[in-house]
Amino acid sequence: MTEAFGEEGEQGQVVLSDPHGHDEPAKFAFDIVFGLSVAQVQIYESVGKPALHKTFEGYNGTIFAYGQTGSGKSFTMTGAPGDLRGIIPRVNEELFSYIAEKQSSSTCRFLVMCSFFEIYNEIIFDLLNPVSDRSKLGGGLQIKEHPVMGIYVKDLTEIVAEDVTKVETLLENGNKSRAVSSTLMNSTSSRSHSIFTIKIHQKDEDDTSRNVFAKLNLVDLAGSERQKGTGATGQTLKEGANINKSLSAEAQWTANGKKVFIPYRNSKLTRVLQESLGGNSLCTMLATLSPAACNYEETMSTLRYANRAKAIKVSATKNEEASQ
């Protein structure tokens, strides 16, 4: 039902055909189109690696995966062991490889700090400092705004990471705490949006007056939900409603991106990603699609969303301080 034209990793086109034959095939052009057989390393080289390199240069960055349940968001971002590793573990590996190389050949020194949280039913939970009974947290962690720090999550745990193993442990423990439940679309459907943030502080021992700060947000969104398709009831249906609230707010961002007003406060997701979506950050969207004819409507929705997102312009600047 979907076809990717052009070689993988290069600018291409997606053609979506109506399985019922009612409408003409819809064509969408994107910066990069990957086919079904693309290797994880190709996606990383095209998306993850450039974002990480920009972070070392001092630019904030965000990579987020958007698409319906079961279309491959978590696989693309996290993946599985070995060659199936996704963007996040590959970023982790290259992060410390670069630092080791840089520190051995220069006087640059680095501090890496990580945070990991999820937004579940419009409540923010710290995945690096989980609690056994979430009901005791009430409204969860709160979003605050500081004149210098900007938007941040109050009391969110940040842990210094010295090596690859440390970050792997943080990710493993955090993912165990994520909200997951079964739907007809996916037996282990992520019911929350997760945001793993890597902050990098660089300082040159020979030039202590200059500091470079930057962060990279790696975001795995919950799947876009339709009750009919997922068979959701009760708590799972409530989860789906809140997922849609967040994603609908993001859809408004893509629709209104050329206007002055962006509805950041419509959901916790757009609020915490305010800087990423319309401020000082480079942002890459990965739209994941299902090739199944039964998912035609959801696939069309994802493609339209991604097509609107292309028009959004951000103004990212290098985060560098020079003291006297």
From TrEMBL:
One Gene Ontology cellular component: microtubule
SMART domains for this protein: KISc (SM00129)
InterPro entries referenced in this protein's UniProt entry, alphabetically: Kinesin-like_fam, Kinesin_motor_CS, Kinesin_motor_dom, Kinesin_motor_dom_sf, P-loop_NTPase
Subcellular localization(s) per the UniProt record: Cytoplasm
CDD domains: KISc
Keyword Coiled coil assigned: yes
Domain of life according to the entry: Eukaryota
Main location (coarse class): cytoplasm
Pfam families given in the database record: Kinesin (PF00225)
Limits of the Kinesin motor domain: 1-312
Binding site for ATP: G67, Q68, T69, G70, S71, G72, K73, S74
Annotated GO biological process: microtubule-based movement; mitotic spindle organization; spindle elongation
Keyword Membrane: no
Chain segments annotated as coiled-coil in the UniProt record: none
Keyword line: ATP-binding, Coiled coil, Cytoplasm, Microtubule, Motor protein, Nucleotide-binding
A GO MF term: microtubule motor activity
Family that this chain belongs to: Belongs to the TRAFAC class myosin-kinesin ATPase superfamily. Kinesin family.
PANTHER family to which the protein is assigned, alphabetical: CHROMOSOME-ASSOCIATED KINESIN KIF4A-RELATED (PTHR47969)
Protein name as catalogued: Kinesin-like protein
Organism of derivation: Cladocopium goreaui
